Amino acid sequence: MIRARLAGKEGEYAQGTTVLDVIKDIDKAALKNAVAVKVNGRARGFKDVLEDGEAVIEPIGSDTKEGLEILRHSASHVMAQAVKSLRKDARLAIGPAIEDGFYYDFDVDRPFTPEDLVAIEAGMKEIIKADYPFVAETFSSSDALALFERMGEPYKKEIIEELKADEVCVYKQGDFIDLCRGPHVPSTGWIKAFKLTSFAGAYWRGSEKNRMLQRIYGTAFASKQALEAHLTRLEEAKKRDHRKLGRELGLFSTSDDIGAGLTLWHPAGATVRRVIEDFWKAEHVANDYSLVYTPHIAQVGLWKTSGHWDFYRENLFSPMDVEGQDYIVKPMNCPFHIEIYKSGLKSYRDLPIRYAELGTVYRYERSGALHGLLRVRGFTQDDAHIFMTPAQLKDEIKGVLNFTLYILKAFGFNEFDIYLSTRPDKYVGELENWALAEDALKKALDSTGLAYAIDPGEGVFYGPKIDVKIKDMLGRAWQCSTIQVDFNLPERFDVTYRDETGAEKRPIMIHRALMGSLERFFGCLIEHYAGAFPLWLAPVQAIVMTVTDRNNAYAEKVRARLKQSGIRVELDMRNEKLGFKIREAQLRKIPYQLVIGDAEEKDGKAAPRAMGSKTFEPMTIDEFLSRVKDENRPLVAREGLQGNTLS
RNA sequence: GCCGAUGUAGCUCAGGGGUAGAGCAACUGAUUCGUAAUCAGUAGGUCGGGGGUUCAAUUCCCCCCGUCGGCUCCA
Description:
Blueprint: E1 2-6, E2 9-13, H1 19-26, E3 34-39, E4 42-44, E5 53-61, H2 65-86, E6 91-92, E7 97-98, E8 101-107, H3 114-130, E9 135-140, H4 141-150, H5 154-163, E10 167-173, E11 176-179, E12 193-203, E13 212-221, H6 224-239, H7 242-248, E14 252-253, E15 264-265, H8 267-286, E16 290-291, E17 297-299, H9 301-306, H10 308-311, E18 320-322, E19 325-329, H11 334-342, E20 353-362, E21 378-388, H12 393-410, E22 416-421, H13 431-448, E23 453-455, E24 465-471, E25 477-486, H14 489-492, E26 497-498, E27 504-505, E28 508-517, H15 518-528, E29 542-546, H16 552-564, E30 569-572, H17 578-587, E31 592-596, H18 598-603, E32 607-610, H19 621-628, H20 635-638
Parallel strand pairs: 1-5, 16-20, 22-23, 29-30, 29-31
Antiparallel strand pairs: 1-2, 3-4, 3-5, 6-8, 7-8, 8-13, 9-10, 10-11, 12-13, 14-15, 17-19, 18-19, 20-21, 21-28, 22-24, 24-25, 25-28, 26-27, 31-32
Helix pairs in contact: 2-3, 4-5, 7-15, 12-13
The chain binds one RNA strand of 75 nucleotides through β12, β13, α7 and α17.
């Protein structure tokens, strides 16, 4: 006997009853918009037969996360069916739903081409039109192995063998058979809106030791409108691409003659960076950090002591010979800060000690990994290392976390994904210290009132950490800040302090970066603001433009006055029409344009126009300056929060 | 590093075995103009680099480099 509940109603059913039978009996309306159901919390298909006992049924809407996953998973099967019918050489690997879509990996003799993609899409449309039902069938593992052996599907066999289950589930639609745990939508006709987006090579099981397969990516949505909206979002993201804007706005470039992954900061980009750095330094001084500078190269022994030489050698640039000694360019700053600490005897009275540096480091990244400013071979970390007694850990972490959020908010980021990663299986340090550190991190997070996720066992071997990802205007998450407790380096470098009794003690170290790297953070800022930086960051904040050359002398005075007041200002006296000058300034995304014509000159004013299309009545320069005064500050300062800003 | 695509003027792109073309930008001149493109003219390229095939290569072949989409990595 099955006791089924749905939408607050109940019914009793005989054995062999399917989910669909129950829904039809209790509440047909629940079918609307649903792609599958949850039975007792587990996702199932409509045609699944219910087991004896209690069955709580909840529909899964096609617009929910779970519903979309099912829809996309089904779409990946349809794609695989289309590929199998078009390409006899294709053997199936895996085809899951992923964030924003799905993919399927195939082992093929000849890689796919763009034309293949078009043909596959057409094939999928046929299959959807034919509306084949998805039919689940349970096989014993040995029968399933035999089945996939007959079908010539070695990857499926490998998966079954690894499952080590007695029974496996197989889904069929039309003449297509695939190993799959389901659930699926009832039939292929349910896939209303899909699109294949790209294809690329991908290793079997993600390991480069394995054969490279060909992966096709696609996406599917509940409706054509939702798909369109998604594609529009992708277009929007493309428009904001920092590599494109970086070139158009003259922010940065790279050069073949210099080398991949090495960034040239052009004057406009360098100006933004300078503003960021000035703000960063002022805030660190205000928060009792000591700013330091350290060399770019050092003897390789430093990295042997730190352990990086053994662990991360493939990411270090090769050593250079200096009078018989091996030197490398630094991949990180920590050993230098430790050496500064160790240059004199430290007492518990000195702690905590906070060394901060905008330290430029070089790491060898494989060519295929490089990406704009986000993945480079030379970058500047906004690094700091804090040395403290175990008793100071809790307050220190709280301080660092608040400082982090303060800085990120200053740049206009207010949404975060926060992760706490705890002790992994392989670790160094005392259990009691790990407990102390994890507790301190957790308490600090709790005190912010922000939501966070715990990644159990995902900490680094040397200590637990907090990672903060910032969400940009399009809701994309960017990994920037990290706060890591380190029990390892103080040990390896024999870092000590003297306690109240004069005994030698081991300090705890925190390694932290707020923006992560200036390159990556800049890339993120560019995309967040689509290149239209807020006034305080804009490379050129205002441009004075004349209507005719009668106004040149007065315009020059206006420019001088603004410049004197600390505004980054340009003057456009070219013999061009005003509309042309406006257009160009808009394309350069300059926050304010100040129009100077005969009328303004006569009244000693200027007519401002803001980025976009907002125009203002003519005003005096003093009026303009007082109007933009607040805007020309980091965002947190405007909100009256703590902090010593550049005002 | 691997798979695939790609590299032609500053930018966006067309072309194609007989040493290259457009639009925008640049430069020169005319125009003195009021909130997103005034008109005309001029100049600009060892077709990513190297090697090979050929009477002849930017075009075909090979190698390398960069870039793009992924895989992998991200202390």
